[in-house]
Amino acid sequence: MTLPEGERLQKVLARVGVGSRRRCEELIDAGSVTVNGQVATLGRRVDPRTDLIEIDGVAIGVRPDAVYYLLNKAAGVITTADDPQGRPTVLDGLPAEPRVHPVGRLDADTEGLLLLTNDGELTHRLTHPSFGIDKEYLAEVQGTPSRGALRTLRSGVELDDGVTAPATVSLLEGNVVRIVIHEGRNRQVRRMCEAVGHPVRRLVRVRIGPLRDTRLGPGEWRELSTGELRTLERAVRRDPSRLDCGTGAAG
Ligand code: URA
């Protein structure tokens, strides 16, 4: 006798938090679930490690071993796995297993949200410039930027590695600038502000694509919810026309 291979699709969906077994069966019945691009039917068996399972075109995080942490990085903490100088790193305080890596990087003196995962595919998409994931920063700068300076930040700043892409920029208070960029160049926000005559005194990342959290204290972390993961997957949704341009970026 040969045993059927894989697990029942509705069981996998329920396990990763899509909904109750019943709800998952309804989604399959409604034709909302595809496996490797083909509409799935009830009873379909899948291998969650190799099959691409999507609900309404959005891949679900079915890798049973994948973890996704959102950290509120404190100032002075290094975005690296290992610091030769022994300074605190973003991995301190996180579970040792499974081993995760930061998605992109924040400078040692930058605070705020950083995603860490062992999901290489999602990391690739989040850091690949062609996906253009927004990152929102609050920059406390020296002095009060003029309208002209804000306009330059918005339209593109000449840096030594080229002009920056258009950004969304607004002045919140006298010296706090909200900057949304989708590039991930090294020290980009600091260099942009410096270039318009307003060096950054404090920099905080408050959003990565759809991810925000105003409740995590400095150094605190939590796992992403299934809903957040799905929204994130949607933000970097597979679009073959965008997969073959450019190279990876720092984030
Ligand atoms: N821009 C910076 O200048 N620093 C960061 O850490 C992130 C974006």
> Can you tell me the residue ranges where pLDDT is under 50 for at least 5 consecutive residues?
239-251
Question: How would you characterize the largest beta sheet?
Answer: 8 strands, mixed
Question: What average pLDDT do the residues reach?
Answer: 87
Q: Based on the structure given, which CATH architecture of the largest domain is correct? A: 2-Layer Sandwich
Sheet-strand content, in percent, reads 25-35%
Provide a count of the helices: 6
Query: How many strand segments?
Result: 16
The fold-level CATH name of the largest domain is: Pseudouridine synthase
- The portion of residues assigned to helices is 10-25%
- The arrangement of helices and strands along the chain is EHHEEEEEEEEHEHEEEEHEEH
CATH superfamily of the largest domain: Pseudouridine synthase
Question: Could you name the CATH class of the largest domain?
Answer: Alpha Beta
Q: Structural class, from secondary structure content?
A: alpha+beta
What characteristic shape results from the CA principal axes?
elongated
Bound molecules: uracil
The end-to-end distance, rounded to whole angstroms, is 51 Å
Radius of gyration from the alpha-carbon trace, in angstroms: 21 Å
Number of domain units? 2
